[in-house]
Amino acid sequence: MHVIPVINAQDFETVEAELVIAHQFLHPSGWIHIDVTDGHFTPNITWSNPEELNKLKTIHHDFADFKFEIH
Asked: Is a pLDDT exceeding 70 seen at residue 48?
């Protein structure tokens, strides 16, 4: 069984901060699940620019091997 941390954030800065926290306990090639909500099925609207993940992989080399699941 694998436990996959979930990130549900409203902005890029929060996504980055939560990835830094996850990096402390997650295997370098571990999975991260990112929830994205658009305000249609829930009242929340979350961060929704997956292209910024590429920036994080460049800035934080420790994130380069993370596997991302976007839902």
From this structure: no
DSSP 2-67: ----EE--SSHHHHHHHHHHHHTTS-TT-EEEE---BSSSSS-B----TTHHHHHHHH-GGGTT-E
> Which whole number is the average pLDDT over 23-40?
83
pTM higher than 0.90: no
What's the CA gap between 62 and 71, in Å, rounded? 23
Q: Could you tell me the two tokens for 29? A: 């090639």
- Sheet of 6-7: strand order equals 6-7, 31-34, 67-70
Residues 4 and 68: their CA atoms lie apart, in Å, by 10
